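retry 2 of 3: previous attempt timed out while embedding adenosine monophosphate. Reduced batch size to 1 and resubmitted. Inputs unchanged:
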Amino acid sequence: MPRKKAGNKQGKQEPQKKRNKRFQSVRGMRDILPKEQPYWQKLRKVVEKIAIDYAYGRIDFPVLEDKELFERGTGKNTDIVDKEMYKFKTKGGANVCLRPEGTPSVVRAYLQHGMASQRKPVKLSYSGPMYRYDRPQEGRYREFFQFGFEAIGEQDAILDAQMIQMATRIFKSLKIKNVALHLNSIGCEECRPSYNNLLISYLNNRKKSLCMDCKKRLNKNPLRVLDCKEEKCTQVVGQAPQTVDHLCGDCKTHFTSLLEYLDEIQIVYSLRPQLVRGLDYYTKTVFEFFTEDDEGAQSALGGGGRYDNLVGMLGGRETPGVGFACGMDRLVKAMKDNETEPYLLPIPKVYLAQLGDSAKKKSLRIFEELNKAGVMIAESFGRGNLRTQLRQANKINAEIVLIIGQREALDDSVILKDMNSGGQETMPAEKIVKEVKKRLKKNAVLAKRIAKQKAEKEKKELSKKKKAAKRKSKKK
Ligand code: AMP
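retry 2 succeeded.
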């Protein structure tokens, strides 16, 4: 059938209106919509609770930082800084970047605000967006969110163990199962140079089999070759000398005591000689947490380690530190994969309906009064139709519906409809807060009693069933 041409009443064609351009979010960056938020809210709550339990104070730092902070801290030759950092010059000519990670910023703030004079360790936690210009794919974004914990000023391995314990508790609270902990020690300034020489000579003999990047890395940062994901490099690296076999006395003792602490708190770990974490500031302990999805693909949920030289590298007095960060986007995905219950928003038990212009005005005031008194209310102020509003009240299972019509608006009263009993009465608007609170309290007591009776009944039935089963098995 031929389509009717759109036209006005006289059949004339309207000139086509030019539509303004619609925008999309920038590649690799995304909106997190309200329906996703309950997962994020749950995650934030769990992380906040751990921060309180372990006495970590929250710190927020700018998204924009001096580019050199990461070049010096994270390392100029690391992928994060060399290939993935968003960097630009400001109008004033300052070289800045979008933060690709949190640790150097935390240390910068620690030094800038004289936290070095505080009681050690200084314990700080943060969360927020990070930026890396990598190829976007599932679970990898150019803007992603991390939370992290840093403890500055203590070198005892108990702090390393506590970091791992905290991360593990977060995964458990989020009901994320099958998280594997990969662990290694990459030594310190004392033992690393001789190990590096050993590794360079091993790799030099096999240079032809390495990828282009690793050929370049080989002399500058040979440790990075160890965690290259290229197939041909992983084969070469499989037989390479291992850092743990070349630790100095101090690093060896540190690593052994970390393992003992982990055994004590029954945290299972898997020693990974190839794990180096790729950043310049790590010393001694490095660790990473992995989860497996349904297809068996591994994804890193988070990682961390010790950074005993970072404070010194950023201009402070040599001070040890340890920390970890987790990817929140990936944790949210893992929560969904594990069917973790998201944060449940409280549902209002009272619905406020209005009919007519003057009633609408009154309802805005009543809403605020009830809200101030701590009563959550639902409404659809944009709707004028009472039936639609009552349907909405039913949908949310409201216990009380308040109705303000033309008459009620005139004599400053409200109709209170009790949805449990079905009864309704009109009362002065000034009494409504007290009355609603009284009824909600009564309903709550009643609901508690009913739940208790139900639980007792179920308990009795269960014990009856158990007794019957016992009798049956005795007869046999
Ligand atoms: P890293 O600072 O690289 O050790 O990252 C810590 C955690 O942040 C990782 O284990 C991931 O869970 C998460 N992460 C890192 N990069 C990204 C990214 N591009 N997109 C999403 N999550 C990321």
